[in-house]
Amino acid sequence: MTKVIPAPGLGLMPKLHDPELLIFVRHGETDWNFEGRMQGQKDIPLNATGQAQATENGQRLKAYLAQEGIDPATLDFVSSPLTRTRSTMELLRGAMNLNASAYRLDDQLKEITFGAWEGFTLEELAEEEQDLILQRRADKWGFVPPGGESYEMLADRIGVWLKTVDRPSVVVSHGGVFRVLRGHLEGREKVAVPKLDVPQDKVFVWRKGCFEVV
C-alpha cells in the first residue's frame, strides 16, 4: 500500500473580489446526492425532494428581497448549464412570480468533475482505488481524481468567474463551486474549504463583506 503523507498547511485562499451583493443557491437534491454518489458534471435531474427545496428557496429569496427593498429586476440571474441547476433556477424564479426562463447560463459555474469516479460512492471504489482514496483523504484540496479536477483547479476556474461579477447577482450552482467561492470571498484556509457544508435548502447572501444564511 502506498504510504500517504498528510498535506502540509496550505495557507489561505486569496480574496479576489468583493461583490456588492451575491446571492448563491445550491441546486436541489438528486437521487445521486441521496445515495452519496460522486455526481460532478454528470447531468442528473432533481428528485421530488430537490424540486421542493428549489421552490422553497424561491419563496425564501422572494421574502428576503421584499424585506430588504431589493427589486429582482435589478439582479442578474445566472446558472450552471447542468439540468439540476437549470431546473432549480426555473423553480426558484417561478416561486418568485418571475418568468422562469429569464436567466442566463455560464459554463464556468459547472461543478467540479470527478472524472472516472463519477457515479460511484467511495465505498464502491474502496477495493480497487484504496490508495487513491487515502491520498484524497490526506489532501482533498490538491487531489486530482482520474480524469477529474482538484479543488485547487476548481478554485482557479471560479476565481476567474468571480472577477467578472459586476452587478448584484443570483447564482444557482453546485456544492463544490460554493465551497471555493466562499473560500475566495472570506479568505478561508484552503485545507478547510472542501469540508464546508452546503445545504440544499438554504439561500446564501453575500452582502457588506459577510454571508447571511436565509
Descriptive overview:
This protein has a single domain (21-213), classed as 3-Layer(aba) Sandwich (Rossmann fold), CATH 3.40.50.1240. The protein is built from 7 helices and 6 strands, in the order E-H-H-E-H-E-H-H-H-E-H-E-E. The chain has helices at 31-35, 48-68, 83-95, 122-125, 130-138, 151-162, 175-186, and strands spanning 21-26, 76-79, 104-105, 169-173, 203-207, 210-213. A hairpin with a 2-residue loop joins strand 5 and strand 6 (210-213).
Percentage of β-strand residues = 5-15%
Strand order of the largest sheet: 3-2-4-1-5-6
- Describe the global form: globular
CATH superfamily: Phosphoglycerate mutase-like
Unreliable sequence segments: none
Q: Return the domain count.
A: 1
What integer is the average pLDDT?
94
Supply the key terms.
alpha/beta, 6-stranded mixed beta sheet, Rossmann fold, 6 strands, 12% strand, 214 residues
Write the layout of secondary structure elements.
Layout: E1 21-26, H1 31-35, H2 48-68, E2 76-79, H3 83-95, E3 104-105, H4 122-125, H5 130-138, H6 151-162, E4 169-173, H7 175-186, E5 203-207, E6 210-213
Helix pairs in contact: 2-3, 6-7
Brief synopsis:
This protein is an alpha/beta fold.
